[in-house]
Amino acid sequence: GAVVSQHPSWVICKSGTSVKIECRSLDFQATTMFWYRQFPKQSLMLMATSNEGSKATYEQGVEKDKFLINHASLTLSTLTVTSAHPEDSSFYICSAGKQGALTEAFFGQGTRLTVV
Amino acid sequence: QQQVKQSPQSLIVQKGGISIINCAYENTAFDYFPWYQQFPGKGPALLIAIRPDVSEKKEGRFTISFNKSAKQFSLHIMDSQPGDSATYFCAASGAQSNTGKLIFGQGTTLQVKP
Fold first, then answer.
1. Which stretch, A9-18, A89-98, B41-50, has highest mean pLDDT?
2. Smallest Cβ distance to B43: which of A31, A32, A107?
């Protein structure tokens, strides 16, 4: 397998502030990482694809200016939720593709964001 | 065409029984079909995966059955245990996006009763 670490595991912030979530691949390099959002009892919805050294690709309906993604190295991608509002409260999960004969996706442990 | 439809939404099985979860897809470009297990408050963990060149793959108590012509695949959990109680997601990806990008099914909440 492979290890993807996400930090923090949970965070509470006030409305209007920004929150940064980190996703690290600990034992492999990932040129591509993915950010998902999951509401309670629902599936994972892909928000964006994070590409090392280039701009992220956002899924339809996801605000680029609100969810800033930076993939500065082959082992780190960050998601910044800017000007957070209570409706942004959710479970955010990252994954990284480990390339081989086929690319398997390994997930971080997720970040529970609560905006008050 | 990008959807993966999963059923049932929830499932209750007695300990020792067989749990069966089904998924269907439309996009014939999909060529990688993993199953993930997720416990509350945790990220999904890869359970087992299959490629379309085989019809079945077994790992321990977990088996994937794959029907290419019907564009369906299923997860069978044999001898289900209370510790298997979790949410299970099927997913799919295509060779054109060989980066780990996945399309997820809606999820199935499994409860195994002692």
1. A9-18
2. A107
A113 touches A13 (CB < 8 A): yes
Mean pLDDT within B3-29: 96
pLDDT of residue A98: 76
Residue where the block lists tokens 């992220």:
A56
Which residue is it, tokens 């997601």? B89
Query: Which residue do the tokens 């004969």 mark?
Result: A101
Tally the C-alpha atoms within 13 A of residue B114's C-alpha that lie toward its C-beta.
1
* Distance linking the first and last C-alpha atoms of chain A: 37
CA distance A16 to chain B (A): 25
Contact by Cβ (8 Å): A81, A88:
yes
CB-CB under 8 Å, A98 with B109 = no
CA distance B15 to chain A (A): 23
**pLDDT for the residue A2:** 83
Taking 60 as the threshold, does the pLDDT of residue B55 lie above it? Answer: yes
For the segment B86-100, the average pLDDT, to the nearest whole number, is: 81
